[in-house]
């Protein structure tokens, strides 16, 4: 690997064939001798040029000045130096470093598409090297649906710079002007003759040339894209179908032992008396380790408890079952989520803190011909990726190496440094594949656990969370109570709109006692509401956190979109209007707006409002598209209903129409879903469609069944029967996705399909039955049908 | 006491505590990590293997009950149905994160081997024990139908 061997690739090369992390497994033929030619060649002779044999380039034959430093360390998005991202082997293998975590969104493939397109690589020779956690890569937090948005430009620049260096190298070799040389599919050709030089052959010479400045690089035009915006097949799936690839839970190290942890039932509960004799008597159990008690604020620290270490995971689980631990109540022992829900609803009925204001809502409502009020409640949720958290840690003297399914290996490394009080330089964090994440794996508490235990044990330790651990000891999606009020004029037009939202903020996990919803969370569907009425006010109310509150796929957008888009349909009903038409009227004409001009502090997903304005025309456009796809307004069989919702999140615009059928007994089915998305430039439409399906079903699963409750501070649910998720038989029969073709800046894909799912569903149920659902979940863990009030029929 | 198991046609000797489920024998003792852990209580299907051709949850299956049985895992499942399922899975990019997919492929392979023309109801019945949190359900259904049209 020339670039690495020359010391200009700072990334750590994969270490051997042990299961230390994911990597592609292509077997590469090394330099090959072509019989009869008398020459060592690289690559293949070109079809149609049967007499041409590619000469072997000797980079040492060129006396080149020191190439100097890369001028691309600070392009928009970060460091675009080719050496950081691309290594080309002498045999032509193109190794692209992926610094984001692969969790099913196909980020390996999308990052490679971006680099390889500008590089003009031969796609069949592309391999992925997963980056460890290190600042050199810039942001690695695979969260917030922003891998493409953050990296689209700089990875294109890196690929294009490398392409230029390869063509410059070919020009140097041929003694031509670079303008006479061009690159395509891993080969450089020239305009004078039919000779070609392959990337593998050119790599060493190219690596000795200066990196071009951004001004000297020309990016391809969208019409010239070969991989971007194309349905390139996934790089991971062929491995997955054979059970290959390494997830966090699959990591294996020599001499490794296995651990599970008994954690206090409540957050900040503590360990009291412990009797581990029975645990130690379980065959295969090696020892127990007492972890230090957790103290507020929660941050990413482990929750304490007793670890049981054994020679396999099963023995560790059996040992844990045999532990006799007396838990000491902590400050959250009084938390009861049911009564807390009532308290939040009461808060939502009182004036709150104004977070955005236009006109005078109170006066508007006082003058209204009709006032509509509604209250909504949505419970805590668990992310529950199929792969529960799992991490492996190994200490060698004072050096720590970890392998784990983490969304952010950099934060993981920093957290380890902080909590173990060791120098970051002594810590290596390897990100494995993630068996789903949905926000859970952006919290590295489980890696710290592994490091603490491994330190005591003196061997590599893998900590596995059982499903019960994952459901009971998570970082939960916040529960929320919301109240909306609106005034309609005599024509049914909405003139005044008040939205009050109450929920424990994620900040409560990071600062003890934080109870005020943050600007970030308010900007997820509350303060950025796109409605055009003259009087509008958004308020928040405080609520304290008693569980660890954390991110879950699309975060506060879930409950905000549920309330706002349900309420839009309630207003349509009050006005006697069609849901879709009324929704478009609420949005109003095509315009851009900045909630900041109406008093909001609006982060806009960390993007500038100039680069990514809120464009109501794009919202209306996806509403029209989804409605058209669903043939909105068509005659429906009795018991069927169509519902619509639209939401902008993660800078993307998505409208969803759902058709439900409800039997007289309340049995619910989903015959079809139609979704239109405008996410700007889409790198891989096929994988974007998969995220639209996945994000929608994730939202429907939560809305139909999802509910985490707590009693005496402890989570009640424990595994899939009580924490219910949607299964194959409940999935829609038909799911159509339209991606709006666009060359504007890329926006998010992984999360934004989730928010409109729940309100589209409840709006459809309303149209099918006349029954308005304002409290989630709709069916719950044990239910099998809708609870329809007897007076309401279709 | 050591037990002799026949896995993917090969004889393996394992020394795990009596009653240890096959899942952990595969994953921790034999380092065959293609078979996944999702719930441990026969609720999610991530751990599905074939025992004498029948899809079975390995997380609740004591390994010491399996002497003499043919155990097949994702790493070793072959034959027409398995090849076809793998092919349509790759063609359609069915998996997302992939974590549930060993179980999905084992279940779908067994379905297709039994029933070369499954209806929606057959697919629901055979596959509803396999949870996918990435929600690849629609892709799985499409892919099984594609496979059936070629079987
Ligand atoms: S792990 Fe066996 S069914 Fe879930
Ligand atoms: S593909 Fe991720 S859980 Fe099924």
UniProtKB/TrEMBL annotation, chain B:
Keywords: 2Fe-2S, Iron, Iron-sulfur, Metal-binding, Oxidoreductase. It comes from Erythrobacter ani. CDD domains: fer2. Residues 1-77 form the 2Fe-2S ferredoxin-type domain. Pfam families: Fer2 (PF00111), Fer2_2 (PF01799). PROSITE patterns: 2FE2S_FER_1, 2FE2S_FER_2. This is (2Fe-2S)-binding protein. Coiled coil: none annotated.
